Amino acid sequence: MVPGIEPSPDKMLQGRLFSYPDTQRHRLGVNYQQIPVNKPLNEPQTYQRDGSMTVDGNMADAPNYFPNSLGGPLEAGNLRYHAYTGDHSVVDKFSTADDDNFSQVGEFYHKTLDKEARERLAENIAGSLVNASKPVQARAVANFTKVDADYGLRVQEKLNLLEKAKTEQQKAKVRMTEPLNPPRKAFKAVAA
User: Fold this and answer.
1) Do the domain assignments include residue 70?
2) Are residues 55 and 109 both part of a single domain?
3) Which CATH number goes with the domain that contains 119?
4) Helices 115-129 and 134-147, interaxial angle, to 10°?
5) Terminal Cα distance for the chain, rounded
6) Which of 53, 68, 165, 176 has its CB 3.0 to 4.6 Å from that of 31, i.e. a possible disulfide?
7) Residues 6+ apart with CB under 8 A from 106
8) What is the model's pLDDT at position 70?
9) How does pLDDT run across 17-47, given as a tens digit for each residue?
10) Separation CA 21–CA 44 (nearest Å)
11) How many domains is the chain partitioned into structurally?
């Protein structure tokens, strides 16, 4: 919306506000706000990237997730709509501070996965985390531990094993004797 013009608390309008940007995403792609004619004068700091109609450099190597430890944009808590002087039963802002982000994953971990599946899950996660920075690894393991102590412990153990193997491989400077994807041979048609 135009700066300085805000939506009224009309329930019909409030119910439709989500559909306006949704329509633009459908018509023009997820990056519709990067297209020069739709782009705001002040450069927005968002985590949107990739997808169709990416026209502004794709944020280079900036992270596309929040929170992060790499200096990405933070929410500006002081920027809100002006105070409404009418009916004060309108919600100001929905707080997510007390959301439970771990119990549903814990249910899945305990009730859906058997021992072998838990082991595979820990191996796969550790395989993805092994090349991440140490602070990111520590935060990820802390989150898995909040889900379940065993879950965090398994991931940490697998991560330690992979780190050890990675270090040994770097010391030995082992070279692959055969490439993982050997070159393809030219196709020769056989006469029938």
Assistant:
1) no
2) no
3) 1.20.1370.60
4) 160
5) 68
6) 53
7) 147, 148, 151
8) 82
9) 889 889 988 998 888 888 888 888 887 777 7
10) 16
11) 2
- With both helix axes pointing from N to C terminus, report the angle between 149-172 and 115-129 in degrees, rounded to the nearest 10: 50
Taking a C-beta distance cutoff of 8 angstroms, is the pair 145, 157 a contact? no
Quickly count helices (H) and strands (E) in the chain. 6, 0
Q: Spell out the alpha helix ranges (H) of 38-114.
A: 103-107
- Phi and psi for 182 in degrees, rounded to 5? -65, 155
Residue 14 one-letter amino acid: Q
* HSE-up (13 A, CA, CB side) for residue 80: 9
- Identify which has the larger pLDDT, 128 or 175: 128
Q: Are residues 55 and 111 in the same domain?
A: no
Of 70, 56, 181, the C-alpha closest to 135 is 70
pLDDT at 54: 83
Residue 161 lies in a domain: yes
Nearest to 76 by CA among 44, 104, 99, 48: 44
Residue 82 Rama label (left phi>0; alpha psi -120 to 50; beta): beta
Domain holding 152, by residue range, is: 103-172
Please indicate, yes or no, if residue 85 is contained in any of the structural domains. Answer: no
Global pTM reads 0.49
Beta-carbon contacts of residue 92 (< 8 Å; ≥ 6 apart)? 80
Alpha carbon distance 57, 53 (integer Å): 11
DSSP label at 64? -
Whether residue 67 is preceded by a cis peptide bond, meaning omega within 30 degrees of 0, is yes
- Classify residue 124: in a domain, yes or no: yes
What type of residue sits at position 104?
Q
